[in-house]
Amino acid sequence: MADEIKKTDDVSRRQFFTKLGLGSLSIAAVGTAAFSYQFLEPNVLYEPSPVVNAGKPDRYPLGSVTIDVNSGIYIIHSEEGYFSLSAICTHLGCMTAWKPELNQIACPCHGSKFEQSGKKIEGPAPKPLPWKRVWINDDGDLLVDRSTDVPPLARDSFVRV
Amino acid sequence: MAKTVGRSFDQYFDDLRGTRVWRSIFRSGTGSSTLKRALAIQQNVFLHLFSTKVRTRVLSFSATWYLGTLTLGTFFILVGTGIPLMFYYHPSVPQAYADTKDLQFVVSSGLFLRNLHRWSAHAMVFLVFAHMFKVFYRGAYRTPREFNWVIGIVLLLITLLLSYTGYLLPWDQLAYWAITVGSNIASAVPVIGDKIHFLLLGGNAVNANALLRFYVLHCMILPLAAMFFVAIHFWRIRKDGGLYAHSSEPAVVRASASMTTEVAPSGKGAR
Amino acid sequence: MADSKDFVAGVDSNAKKAPRRIVFITRRTSAQVKAETEDQLQTFPEVLFRAAVAIMTLAVVLVWIALMFNAPLEGIADPSHTPNPAKAPWYFLGLQEMLHYFPPVVAGVVVPGLVVMALIVIPYFKVNIEAEGLFTKDPQKRLRIFYIVAGGLSLFLLFPKLDPRAEEHVYVALVPTLIIAGLMILASRSSPQSSSAFRRYLAARPLSYWVMTWFLFELVVLTAVGTFFRGPGWSWVWPWQGY
After folding, report:
1. A9: contact with B, CB 8 A cutoff
2. Do C and B share at least 3 CB pairs under 8 Å?
3. What are the pLDDT digits (tens) for A54-92?
């Protein structure tokens, strides 16, 4: 009688080692998963920098919309100043084009159309074209950081010379 | 408190094992009955290469030193480290060298993977030779196991080729000149030597073509060949009656011991 | 139980009819089936767990080595600059050592080819199946053959260019050969009744053992020499000298 009570209260040796083994195995598995994930994420990328040097601001006359197809951005000089839009359509990633005769940015793939401010007019694109951070560097060049979005039409999203 | 939680966890696990989904995946289930243990081998696509029972004598460490198993273990480690290494390696010249340096300095766990791959490769070559000598000295190559010995020699050659092709991949001075010397030996074969040299390198010198060929050989062709022959090797062990189970005493001692005739158990009770 | 007078056997070589097999069993010559009386164990868990432990131990050792020692990496491959010495991977250094003495056809093609072929045919030779001590049968004749073979091989290794005045001697291969030959002579002077267990052991070794042990010894010595004792220009260095 006393032995039975003892059995139900204590963990048997087999159970202890099973728990120990499974516990160590799960810790090792979690550790392996963590290290594997770290391994798979590259620490160094051999891709071009997201910062684009667009040259001197006077290359872009007032009212102009200029596309740089290699870096996928528009440099637009409006009355409020210079700003930059991403030229990549927010639908499925095609390169849009500026249509001056329609005063629209149009995407050839599925017919999305955007205003100069990036706002979507029509088409399947879910979001407006994002604004990218612009600033003037020490040499007086216009720089665009494609990895940083800024609020559209906000005062600080323009750069004035 | 922990015990009640523990018990309900076990209960939960048991309930899980009763579900239809679980039983559709794991058909035999666990258990310590002979049937369950036999099914664990027999119902498993990877393990049913083995028989469900082995003779006890076969398991003795001193008989084989488990060298065959250890060689297989190094092979698993090599595949397990080699495949991740492929994620950061471009087999082109001179990118290969830059990638090897990247693996050592930039990639998380890259140094560890490369080291483990290298040392396991050396270990595998050593173990496969040791396995061959151990099999010879205990006489496990004799009838009916002759052909398995030949398969083993084929595996030895595949192992050496795997190590040799892998040696070139870092594209450093050590790699380049070791392979140059080695492939020049190949061209010493009479009549067809130069042809072999040309085919092996994909050119007249160790260059980008050679690197790519060695990469394909090392990562695809030779591992597949190795797995193919390993499967045959294991299958032959089983079909030859399991591992050779006599002790590694010399046969002459055994011969005199077995001079006494063995009488089969009489009559009834035949299996 | 067949009484041959009462029995007639016919042979039919009609190719269109399927052959029938007829077994003649005479007394006490039936195939005796030796019943399997050995103990057996379940593969799972006995074999699998032992294999798992062995592989895990191996993995721990290799991981520890990988954490302690870095794999070598030299400068980028430069076809215009050969390092001195330019060594093959360690398992080929035995071969490279032989290349120092013999032309590439011999050391690189013939010898490895013969070695591989010899390894493959090992199980098919009757001499390997019988496995009696080499000098237990016909000791005089076998000793004579042994002296001729060992002596011839030793002379060849001493004068590989077949010129007694040549400076080159293949000592690295000669020394192991002489050691094994010495052991074989000791074996010829021993018998199963010898005093020491070692001599009894030697006396019982078959020819296949001697050949394989000679091969193993040569392999180890040649590889060790190529790894530790060879420096720039494949010159002889002592391992502690460094180069």
Report:
1. yes
2. yes
3. 999 999 999 999 999 999 999 999 999 999 999 999 999
Angle, helices B173-186/B193-201, rounded to nearest 10 degrees: 150
- With CB atoms and an 8 Å threshold, state whether B6 touches A40: no
Residues C67 and C174 in one domain: no
C57/C146 same-domain check: no
C147 plus C62 within the same structural domain: no
Q: CA-to-CA distance for C196 and B104, rounded, in angstroms? A: 56
Does residue C222 lie within any of the structural domains? yes
**CA neighbor of C57 nearest in space, from B73, B122, B132, B116:** B73
Task: Point out the residue among C55, C99, C204 whose CB comes nearest to the CB of B252.
Answer: C204
Q: How many domains does chain C have?
A: 2
Share of chain A above pLDDT 90, in %: 81
Query: Cα distance from A81 to chain B (closest Cα, Å)?
Result: 42
Q: C131: phi > 0 → left, psi -120 to 50 → alpha, else beta; which?
A: left
Does residue A44 belong to the interface with chain B, where contact is any CB pair within 8 Å? yes
Q: Are residues C50 and C154 in the same domain?
A: no
- The distance of C174 to chain B (nearest Cα, Å) reads 22
The answer to whether residue C117 is domain-embedded is: yes
Angle (CA) A126 A129 A131, round 5°: 140
Residue of B nearest to C57 (CA): B70
Answer whether A16 touches B (CB < 8 Å).
no
Q: Indicate if C116 and C203 belong to the same structural domain.
A: yes
Whether B181 sits inside 8 A of C50 (CB atoms) is no
Residue C27 in domain: no
The reply to whether C146 and C189 lie within a common domain is yes
CB burial of residue A125 (10 Å; 0-12, 13-18, 19+): buried
Which structural domain range is residue C104 located in?
90-234
User: Regarding beta strands A131-136 and A142-150, do their DSSP bridges make them parallel or antiparallel, or are they unpaired?
Assistant: antiparallel
Q: What is the pLDDT of residue B185?
A: 85
**Contact flag B173-C96 (C-beta cutoff 8 Å):** no
* CATH class of residue range B66-244: mainly alpha
What value of ipTM does the predicted structure carry?
0.84
